[in-house]
Amino acid sequence: MMTDEQYMEQALREAEKAYEAGEVPVGAIVVINGKIISRGYNQVEQLNDPTAHAEIIALTSAFNYLGAKYIPEATVYVTVEPCLMCTGALYWSKVGRIVWGADDEKNGHARITKDNWPFHPKATVQKGVLAEKCAALMKAFFREKRG
Q1: What would the pLDDT profile of 67-84 be if each residue is shown by its tens digit?
Q2: Do 71 and 97 meet the contact criterion of CB atoms below 8 Å apart?
Q3: Distance between CA atoms of 102 and 134, rounded to whole angstroms?
Q4: Where does this protein hold Zn(2+) (predicted)?
Q5: Which three-class secondary structure state does DSSP give residue 59?
Q6: Edge-to-edge strands, sheet with 75-80
Q7: What is the tens place of the pLDDT at every residue in 92-143?
Q8: Residue 119: what are its φ and ψ, rounded to 5°?
Q9: How far apart are CA 144 and CA 112, in angstroms?
Q10: Helix (H) or strand (E) holding 140
Q11: How far apart are CA 86 and CA 98, in angstroms?
Q12: Half-sphere exposure of residue 109, counting CA atoms within 13 Å on the CB side?
């Protein structure tokens, strides 16, 4: 089995795909029993869909792969703190563990949820995995966009 850092490197590869496509560089993977079962990266612009976040794409792919709507045995790795919409999707899919890299003070769920636990009651969270690397990709993207 890989470490959280190694899995986050895989999520970062997805984020780099988003970056190259001109999308906000967020990537996500879904892991069950040590196996990556799905991947996703932001495709909001490409699909003209504000819900096409990395987590949503990775979750939908995982549901289709497993033929299930609940994945309590899954760990979702995402490069940036999930927004409120993605947090809701993680809640409703009963994901057992959520791991993210960089916090997102502007658009992350914590801006709204504050001290209230927004994930499934049985879920656990690990944050700050490769945070500097994840944040650097976001900063580079927005620095480039602002020119």
Answers
A1: 999 999 999 999 999 999
A2: no
A3: 6
A4: 53, 83, 86
A5: helix
A6: 35-41, 27-32, 75-80, 97-102, 124-127
A7: 999 999 999 999 999 999 999 988 999 999 999 999 999 999 999 999 999 9
A8: -95, 175
A9: 28
A10: helix 131-146
A11: 11
A12: 21
Residues β-bridged to residue 40: 28
134 is in an annotated binding site: no
Residue written as token pair 């656990």:
124
**pLDDT at site 86:** 98
Catalytic residue among 14, 23, 55, 81: 55
**CA proximity to 79, closest of 134, 39, 20:** 134
Asked whether residue 9 carries a pLDDT value surpassing 80, the answer given is yes
The yes-or-no answer on residue 55 being catalytic is: yes
Question: pLDDT tens-digit profile of 34-44?
Answer: 999 999 999 99
Token pair belonging to 42: 């932001």
86 is in an annotated binding site: yes
Pair 56, 87: CB distance under 8 Å: no
Element (H, E) at 8: helix 4-20
109 is in an annotated binding site: no
Distance (Å) of CA 1 to CA 7, 33, 37: 10, 8, 14
Which of 33, 4, 26 has the alpha carbon at shortest distance from 107?
A: 26
Q: d(Cα 91, Cα 75) in Å, to the nearest integer?
A: 12
